[in-house]
Amino acid sequence: MHDAKAQTYEEIMKPFTVHRGRVAPLDRVNVDTDQIIPKQFLKRIEKTGFGQFLFYDWRFGADGTKNPDFVLHEPRFDGASVLVAGRNFGCGSSREHAVWALADFGFRAVISSSFADIFANNSTKNGFLAVQLGEDEVADLMRRADSIDDYQLAVDLEKCEVRDDRGFRAKFSVDEFVRHCLLNGLDDIGLTLQHEAEIAAYEAGHPAPTALQASRQ
Amino acid sequence: MAEKKTLFEKIWDAHLVAEPAGRSSILYIDLHLVHEVTSPQAFDGLRAAGRKVRQPSRTVATVDHNIPTEPRGTPITDLIAAKQIAALQSNCREFGVRLFDMDSPEQGIVHVIGPELGLTQPGMTIVCGDSHTSTHGAFGALAFGIGTSEVEHVLATQCLAQQKPKTMKIDVRGRLAEGVGAKDLTLGIIGQIGTDGATGHVIEYVGPAVRALSMEGRMTLCNMSIEAGARAGMVAPDETTIAYVKGKRFAPQGAEWEKAVAYWRTLPSDDGAAFDKVIEIDAAQLSPFVTWGTNPGMVAPVTGRVPEINGMKETDRRAFELALQYMGLDPGKRIEEIGIDRVFIGSCTNSRIEDLRAAARVAKGHHVSPKVRAMVVPGSQAVKRAAEQEGLHRIFQEAGFEWRESGCSMCLGMNPDILQPGERCASTSNRNFEGRQGRGGRTHLVSPMMAAAAAIAGHFTDIRDWEFQ
């Protein structure tokens, strides 16, 4: 079993500033949320404990035995906390369980050349970073992670850059407000509720449809 | 002269609550649909923070994802699923949210019941913790899927903090040929632009072929927008839309109806409104499609073949090889020679009455191949009742199809309806991802007519040559 540290919900909500950790390469494009966390594990009613099911069908055989060939089971990637993957990572369903599983397994960031919108959105709510770099940069990182022993990257949200200590350095862009929230671990429900007066004013002008206001079943 | 706006921009602007400097816009949400799988942690979050559901009357829940499709009243043997359903029931009671429960005559797939109850209306903002919320865009609503954190956000505030997406116009010229439907249109589009072709964009579908679609067809089209990576898909409201909504249970009535319709007529994109991206599709060039790979962009005409590997880029080649390995297919294999074991007619993509009529028309007077197990899962109890009134269930049953209760069923296999490893399925659902319908299961996405024909033939066959009885 991978010895990555399981995170509690409170830890997931911690601010993200700079993270340095071992890199694991997942050389696949279009990694969909059904692969990240198969549906049979979506029935839990908690946010925690999903890490054991991460990439389940790739990590384990039909009889539950470990697939030693899967990249995250290679001892050299033990404890990896940065995942590098091919384009369109996180496509498919809206299940936030995908982000919870990655975070619970011990990852703090995924680097890819593109992300599905809902996955990227879900990431920001969990102190988890979806870092978008160019295709050539991702390919370079994939090669480095695969060929360099204990390859480590720093993912720096303060400077908006990814770097190693061997000369790799790439800038990434992130929405300024999202960055602000992540750096400070802000609760965005609280931020929206700062607009209570505006919401109430909007609602005064836009009441719920009459039929919906009628007594509920 | 006033600024020219798209349908999307009109709805977006009409729902802006606040635009704080340097922050995401605060967008008001008219309708929040809730189901059992993506909501329990959101309700927990509310409880932990001591918050209420801000607008229970704008929040509607049902159970669909993990309920069995065996006759209602059969005990749920999956205890974890039962616990999740019980959690939704108690959360709805505690927070005062309307729930169409398992035994309700209104129960069904959330994206089927919203429209059929008239909850879904043009001009609305609609969200749900489910990516196929894009379905509701068929009514000229801005509808998109959200994660559980955002479900909690909407429950607590009736708003979402959003960055404005880009716009994409998909102009479908000409007419779809007989036997080529909305499902083929969407598979053709995804095959052309790819599964990330619309990432970051809201699609508006325009053109005569889109106008000619029924509401059911438009829902199929918008439903699969997410499979092209789009944030949402939309079709501007017109007479077809208005006729569909009129008289539905939660539709406006009397003076409210007149006022609503007058507003809906202002929603279509202004002539000359600018889109960030424009794509043109020639409807006449489209055929019935079948996916051969492990994402909805891996698609071929039924008369075609699994592609050859020559000339592919390195990364594409690797994805291609993995897909064919998983699917147990060789390059160059004729699509019509692919034999199947299972057929699933259902899902939020294709389980509405028109879909079932189309499939029944194909099935009538034929019999399912002895090597195929085929099931029909209506999208809702209302669809099931309507189909039974028309006698469709008898056509299916006489042809050897199973006739089930409503739910998401084998689209995602969260309930007991799953494929066995290696089984090959012709499915009217929306995702052919590895293991989507059951570990090791091989999914081919098709239209309801193509699925019914495959069930009978035992392999894919061109519906344009079908002998209707």
CATH architecture of chain A: Alpha-Beta Barrel
Spans where pLDDT lies below 50 across 5 or more residues of chain B: none
Query: What is the number of domains of chain A?
Result: 1
Using the alpha-carbon principal axes, give the shape of chain A: globular
* Distance, first to last CA of chain A: 48 Å
Topology:
The complex is a heterodimer of chains A (217) and B (469).
Chain A: H1 9-12, E1 18-26, H2 33-36, H3 56-59, E2 82-85, H4 97-105, E3 109-112, H5 117-124, E4 129-132, H6 135-147, E5 152-156, E6 161-163, E7 169-171, H7 176-184, H8 188-193, H9 196-205, H10 210-213
Chain B: H1 7-14, E1 16-18, E2 25-28, E3 31-34, H2 40-49, E4 59-62, H3 79-95, E5 98-100, H4 110-116, E6 125-128, E7 142-145, H5 148-157, E8 159-162, E9 166-173, H6 182-193, E10 201-206, H7 208-211, H8 215-223, E11 232-234, H9 239-245, H10 254-264, E12 277-282, E13 289-291, E14 299-301, H11 314-327, E15 342-345, H12 353-363, E16 373-376, H13 381-390, H14 392-398, E17 402-403, E18 424-427, E19 442-445, H15 448-457
Parallel strand pairs in B: 3-4, 3-6, 4-5, 6-7, 9-10, 9-12, 10-11, 15-16, 15-18, 16-17, 18-19
Antiparallel strand pairs in B: 1-2, 2-8, 13-14
Give an overview in words.
The complex is a heterodimer of chains A (217) and B (469). By secondary structure, chain A is α/β, with parallel strands linked by helices. Helices cover 33% and strands 15% of the residues of chain A. Chain A is built from 10 helices and 7 strands. Chain A is globular, with a radius of gyration of 19 Å. Chain B has 469 residues and is an alpha/beta fold. Chain B is 31% helix and 16% strand. Chain B contains 15 helices and 19 strands. Chain B has helices at residues 7-14, 40-49, 79-95, 110-116, 148-157, 182-193, 208-211, 215-223, 239-245, 254-264, 314-327, 353-363, 381-390, 392-398, 448-457, and strands at residues 16-18, 25-28, 31-34, 59-62, 98-100, 125-128, 142-145, 159-162, 166-173, 201-206, 232-234, 277-282, 289-291, 299-301, 342-345, 373-376, 402-403, 424-427, 442-445. In chain B, a hairpin with a 6-residue loop joins strand 1 and strand 2 (25-28). Chain B is globular, with a radius of gyration of 21 Å. The chains are: A alpha/beta (217), B alpha/beta (469).
